Amino acid sequence: MNAMIKKILLTASIICFQFNLNAQKGPSINGVPLGMVSYTYRQSLQKDMATTLDSLKTLKVYDMEFSSLFGKKATEIRKLLDERGMYCSSFGVSYQDALTKSDEVASNAKALGAKFVRVAWIPHDGPFTKELADKTIADFSIIGKNLKENYGLEFCYHNHGFEFAPYEGGTFFDYIAKNTDPKFVNFEMDILWTFFPGIDPAKLLEKYPNRFKLMHVKDLKKGVVGNLSGGTSSENDVALGTGQLDLPAIMKAAKKAKIQHYYIEDESSLHAIQVPESIKYLLSIK
To answer: How many other C-beta atoms lie within 10 A of the C-beta of residue 267?
Structure first.
């Protein structure tokens, strides 16, 4: 085979490869492919992961954040994703596992193909306190430094509402953010759990423009009154654009903050109906 033919075949293969990549591009927000949190489809992923991933692919969702392995090995999930042209960018684990099972957590994250490891809950009883905030700062610093330096992974904490209790003219979230090193500790903003305790998600993104790497995109049913508990009925999750959050303003601020991954999360029993509506709404935001 002469050099000219080899060059033509190589060029053709590159074009085909690029075409396949483009074909796999789904809906995006702020130029970033729209992702999905596995918790949205937790029941069906547990029962039949392959079929559930097929359903997500029909929605042209390729980016996944897995919060559980659903009884499978990380390598098995990776194979299912690879077969569908899908990928996992973030892996959610418990606070305790992140702190005490770093080898296992990192091994699973890397097997999935994730770049981020995320923790979504700080164990606590009663109101959030300074003592708990100090312990959190110390533990997160250990977790983030370990994941970064020993495994090449990035650590993010997903806010859940209770961290916004008032403290020293700000909130405990402010205290944690100011006392952790952004080289090792950053954040995933859950916009519902930012709004629920009375914080404006857009303003918080503006306040910490370089600390939020990931985002959970969800909306809160109209009429629901928030608090600092970190909990509300899953049925209060509604289709994006039908609830209380000012999503256009949040998405505008998120673009400036350079959020790297956006994941739809809908914990309600109506998620199968609401997720397509949410995607349609997000695509309508200018």
So the answer is: 17
Place of tokens 């910490």: 208
Domain residue spans of the chain: 30-284
Q: Provide the Cα torsion 6, 12, 18, 21; round to 10°.
A: -100
Number of Cβ within 10 Å of residue 174's Cβ equals: 18
- Specify the amino acid at residue 7: K
Per-chain mean pLDDT for the chain: 92
Q: What is the pLDDT of residue 83?
A: 98
Which CATH number applies to 30-284?
3.20.20.150
Q: What is the pTM of this model?
A: 0.91
Residues 171/127, Cβ–Cβ less than 8 Å: no
Strand 170-171 and strand 186-190: pairing? unpaired
User: Cα separations (Å) of 285 from 24, 36, 212, 224, 271?
Assistant: 22, 18, 21, 24, 21
Q: One-letter amino acid identity for 153?
A: L
Question: What local confidence, expressed as pLDDT, does residue 24 receive?
Answer: 57
The Cα–Cα gap between 258 and 59 comes to 24
Cα 9 to its chain centre, rounded Å, is 40
